[in-house]
């Protein structure tokens, strides 16, 4: 069984996850061509200038301007990491690491030699949310934002979603980033957003799946979640397979995925082996990173359309390889896949239906904003 620690996902090169093993870097050497050296890699970010000669009828033309792309914008946030697709103008993938501590309503226990928070203050903070002790983010203080770290030419705009008929759907949900206001605010960048059908999907079944991912932390120490927008073909009446999708904005700029995938790797102590407690005083319920872990892996692909509340989550299970092939990614290497059990074989894969938005409407909460709740 492999050994996986709580911070390994982000410490082991998650941001290089496109085309490379995330948890276990491959050691296979790349063969050098017999006729010379390997060509130089493309410059990072496409910023370095390179020159090349292009033969033409009247002589050679000089190509200057650097590596043309495609260039993914790899974004490291407080609660997640993402790769932004400049062509589609939404994330190519997002990744997050969920634990009970990261999702906690209140700060972790005080470190040694610090003054503990009085019990009555802590209780009041957890129920009223008005004490400075609580560090969780307040969603009402967050607003959707264009991401100025992306060149303006390739940037998704707020106007693109206006009256589009689609919600601004979080890939990493705001509810996963309550650790601080900054962490929550960062989930509202449009580089973490993709167009989603609102009623029946973003505001309902997709939200149930996000909640399912969070609830996994009650059975697993560490839950790693990839969210991947997909463009999958559909068979036409003439028997041919075609990929068809809408593009929103004026001019049309932001592509609307046909499907979305959640790929989940969960780990917990394997009690067939001796256990070692964590040395972190704030994580007393965790085991040491050197403890042998049981791995569970699952992938779900959901269509970007209204899904009935009674739909069985297990009906959306697909092999992880199907997601990787469709998205052009390598999320996990063969060793992790081979040593992981099917997620739904070791835990109950079931969504909990919560129609919070319907309750708000009944209480006079009003209509959704033009870009949707999320």
TrEMBL record:
Binding site for Mg(2+): 202
Any one biological process term the GO annotation gives: apoptotic DNA fragmentation
Source domain of life: Eukaryota
All copies of domain DNA/RNA non-specific endonuclease/pyrophosphatase/phosphodiesterase, residue ranges: 76-338
Cofactors named for this entry: Mg(2+)
Broad EC category: hydrolase
GO molecular function, a single term: nucleic acid binding
Keyword Magnesium: yes
Keywords, comma-separated and alphabetical: Endonuclease, Hydrolase, Magnesium, Metal-binding, Nuclease
GO CC annotation terms, alphabetical: mitochondrial inner membrane; nucleus
Start and end residues of each stretch annotated as Disordered: 30-53
Active site: residue positions: 170 (proton acceptor)
Chain segments annotated as coiled-coil in the UniProt record: none
Domain ENPP1-3/EXOG-like endonuclease/phosphodiesterase: 77-338
Enzyme Commission number(s) from the entry: 3.1.30.-
Family per similarity comment: Belongs to the DNA/RNA non-specific endonuclease family.
Record-given protein name: Endonuclease
